[in-house]
Predict the 3D structure of the following.
Amino acid sequence: MATVSHVTIRKRVAFLFLIISVIMMGLIGRLLYLQFYKSVWLSENAVDQRIREIPVEAKRGIIYDRNGRELAVSVSTESVYAIPAEIRNPEETAAKLAAILALDETKLTNILKKRQAFTWIKRKIEPEIGHQVQMLNLPGIGLTQENRRYYPYDNLAAHVLGFNGIDSQGLDGVEMTFDSYLKGRSGSIVIEYDARGREIPNASHRFSPPIDGHNIYLTLDLVIQQIVERELDRVMKETQAKAVTIIAIDPRDGGILALANRPDYNPNKFSEFSPKLWRNIAVSNVYEPGSTFKIVTTSAVMSEHIVKADEKFFDPGEVEVQGRRIHCWKHGGHGSQTFAEVVQNSCNVGFVNVGLRLGRESFYRYIDAFGLGQHTNIDLPGEAKGITIDRAKATPINIATMSIGQSIAVTPIQLVTAAAAVANDGKLLRPQIVREVKDKSGQVIRAFQPDVVRQVLDPSTTKQVKEILESVVSQGSGRNAYIEGFKIAGKTGTAQKVGAGGYLPDKYVASFVGFAPADDPQVAMLVVIDEPVGLYYGGQIAAPVFGAVMKDVLQYLKVNPQLSANSQTGTEQAHVLVPSVINLSVPEAMKELQQAGLIPRIEETGDRIADQIPKPGSRIPSGGGVLLYTMTPRYSTGEVTVPDLTGRTLREASDSLAELGLAIKPVGTNGQAIKQDPLAGSKVLSGTSITIYFE
């Protein structure tokens, strides 16, 4: 009996030992699993519980014009973040934050309950909102400094500058193409906490400073850009066009002096505008150039010695090619004329004849040489290549129509670059938008030198072409581009738009391309007016715009007029500071501008000035025009806080309100402001009139 009992005990001990062994093996297996397979995950979670890393955004580089004037800067702003592990009551915290930040409370609660070390709540908020969040003093909720992009001139050069996203990443324009230089490198603040989420006082906290982005200096000139955009606004108003583009380029180095489109948008509020308005039509849209393309045809036939300037042609009004009749724009034709007169008169029949003489292979060689149908490689996104007929499939009728600027589509930047090549003694340069990149200390990181693509024409040929194009303005279809005292070379263009089924009735593109001075070109420029209402000939509506812009640009660049022998030598024209006339009455504004040596142009009908172009503080040549708007303020809608104007003079009050986009309605004009309506601190919409009582 004792033996049985002893055996039973041994069995039980063995079974217990087996169980203990199994448990030990399981524990060892679990330990190995955690040690070798889950170690990284456990380490990361331990760090997440112990370490809080708060990002510190780098300051984005500044974008300047060629003379160092700021076009895009970064300003500090607050962003709200959360550390969920430190939040004691996610529901209560979400309710308080949602009320201030205008967020969905349920979604915010779910975010705050997630197991994560750090999360953004709302970024780049207004200062007063940030102050309200700070006053709540909520556990696990903090504020950190970030940077918001600000464009001080609003819409100016919007299609060149582009805009940024919420993470300060470039999304369009130079902001996008040079993002790697501008963005810098973010830093961080690392803080160590204990198991209860309390900051450890003597822990090894670490601050990794951000590295700010580099500064970009554009080839743009702020004043020339303002001159161009002033004329764009006027043209849009007068012609009711669908779109307008002006590009000005320095033919000597390929630097873009100004590039602007209408319609446009405000990059400070880009999300409030249709994405269609973000499109830079100067580089992204193609169109049939019409007669402005005849500069290419003229250059090709002169270079190949197909024709001489004094060779005689006869234009009966039409010419037949492969059974199709091509008509001259002038009913009945131009009759007998030299080739120089063919260009002056923009005679289609004459150009068809010389184009057919040139032949397919030679014609295409020059199309390729001028860079048509190819990217110019300008440093702006979304550039189109243009459209050309496949060389192998081109027929004589194709050559004939291409000779007059049909059956080929170009971008505005391609055409002005081609014209600049003629101006630059036949050297085709890559158009450039950036001059140099500098770091914060002013050290040049990258400099852009003139980039010669190829020699398209012989200098002797370009001399003849320049003379012929100068006669277009002095004697031919481009007379409206003439500027007193200067030799202007250029070519008009009027192209009927192509649509489904052929050319569209009553839809035209009017244009003018040229350069000045003709014998020493310093500026080449293209004006394109898409679908104007009423007059649509390039010589009637595009040439005057070219002349108005070029006159002010040459004066600004201090290019001396080429005076005739009978003229007296004049003095260099001075530049004046554009005064602020916003909120002044129309007579007062006109008087002040005239006293400053400027010419006011009034838009709309109203009692007081709502806006002006160029903006106050700009410097433009004496005698330049200032566009004044009266009825419709050109400010974006949105609430503005009314300032306290007590004790200010009429002019001081006017300037203060003008900066905020508000109008003034004075009661009395002498003395100081004693009362105002609405009261200081009130919220009103931009453009609201503030009644001020003076005594």
Summary: Residues 2-37 form the longest helix (36 residues).
